[in-house]
Amino acid sequence: MKTTIVCGILGSGKTTFISQFIKSIEGKAVVLVNDFGKAGIDGEIFSAGGIESVELPSGCVCCTLKFDLITSIEKIRQTFNPANLVIEPSGIASPSGVLEALETLGIREVMIIGIVDATEFLDLNHEDGFGRFFQDQIGNSDIVLVNKADLVEKDLLMRTIESVEEMNHAAIVISAQHGVADNPLPSVPASAKGAERQAGHLKFETISLRLGNELDHEAFSDFFQEMSSGRYGDIVRAKALVNTLMGPYRFDLTFTNVRSVPFERPVQSSRLVIIGKDIKKKDLSALFPTPVSFM
After folding, report:
1. What Å distances lie between residue 251 and 29, 158, 260, 266, 274, CA to CA?
2. pLDDT at position 85
3. What's the pTM?
4. Which CATH fold would you assign to the domain 2-182?
């Protein structure tokens, strides 16, 4: 079973990349996705695209869910017997913890693809907590995609690529747009990796909320804009799948960037996941009185 870990900070484009990457893999493939929060969203996104996936929500696979990760991989082997396993840790998990769990299973031949957001990387890398996270992610990666290359000036893109190359001289660094590499991904043999741990995971609060159906699209978009402005705390990431009056939509907030796009099919259950620091839970509870979890 060929194993690939696709890692990257919140909103870097992991799910978008995997949706494309999985189509190029020969043989049966299964995605094991560890979404943040109890109301997992990425699994339904993969399913809508016809991708076989298994969700491992609520918690971080590099620490509290390590045993669950091991158990889930064993079940995937028995149930699906795939030729390929793609693991998407949450955007707060460092790959070294995932490698340690895989080593427990005797899986050491692992390829790691890191996804970096060109619009945020250089600024975030200077912050202490994020810097350690990036060092773990990029230091363990065989290939690093510098994503969202189309959203930055050429000088900033080149400085980002150079910074990534300095952090890992052996990694192959490629620019990408919308999760698609500007050049075909090279065939890189999976390397035998030890579990050299540098950072467990980023420290954030997570809130998961169930929502009603037929929400007003404009009002919900305004709510996401309010989150991006700091109205509800220091929110670095929010995701929602919602059945609005205009139809099913996917909403995303990454740091201060907000977007909404139509979803491929009606949402099974409208829900929202928020991650950040100093989140104003009381204000959110007043808006949405049925929280699934406060973590």
Report:
1. 27, 30, 4, 14, 11
2. 94
3. 0.78
4. Rossmann fold (3.40.50)
